[in-house]
């Protein structure tokens, strides 16, 4: 309990800057803030990287396979582009999902 008037004034003074700094420091300690707790976790970063890498590799393979398939089955005109795009997105999504799941399983073992 403050005994003098000056101690009472210091104890009850409200500094917006100090409050903001304390709030941000407490939020970082709890894992909240501008960057979510999800991005600070090493395992989550590995899963995100695995998904991105899998989507890239899967998309490239899907584009090559879709191009081959569209010419092999003689798909007419602009439907070739649609078929290649569909194959690319589908392959990238699926391979990205499986690589992300594999990364998540590997994180759980460590």
What report would you give on this structure?
With 110 residues, this protein is mainly α. The chain has a domain at 38-109. 81% of the residues lie in helices and 0% in strands. The chain has five helices and no strands. The chain has helices at residues 5-12, 16-30, 37-40, 42-72, 79-109. The longest helix is centred in the middle third of the chain and has 31 residues, at 42-72.
Poorly predicted regions = none
The amount of beta strand, in percent, is under 5%
What string gives the helices and strands in order? HHHHH
Tell me the distance between the termini: 50 Å
Structural class: mainly alpha
Radius of gyration: 27 Å
Bulk shape: elongated
Helix content: over 70%
Mean pLDDT, rounded to whole units? 81
For the largest beta-sheet, the strand count, sense and barrel status come to: none
What is the number of helical segments per DSSP (H or I, 4+ residues)?
5
Q: How many beta-strand elements?
A: 0
């Amino acid at each position: 309990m403050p005994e003098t008037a000056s101690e009472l004034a210091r104890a009850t003074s409200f500094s917006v800057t100090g409050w903001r700094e304390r709030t941000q420091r407490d939020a970082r300690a709890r894992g909240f803030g501008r960057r979510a707790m999800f991005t600070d976790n090493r395992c989550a970063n590995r899963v995100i990287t695995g998904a991105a890498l899998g989507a890239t590799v899967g998309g490239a393979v899907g584009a090559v396979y879709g191009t081959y398939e569209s010419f092999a089955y003689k798909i007419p005109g602009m439907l070739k582009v649609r078929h290649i795009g569909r194959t690319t997105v589908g392959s990238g999504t699926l391979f990205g999902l499986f690589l992300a799941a594999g990364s998540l399983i590997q994180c759980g073992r460590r």
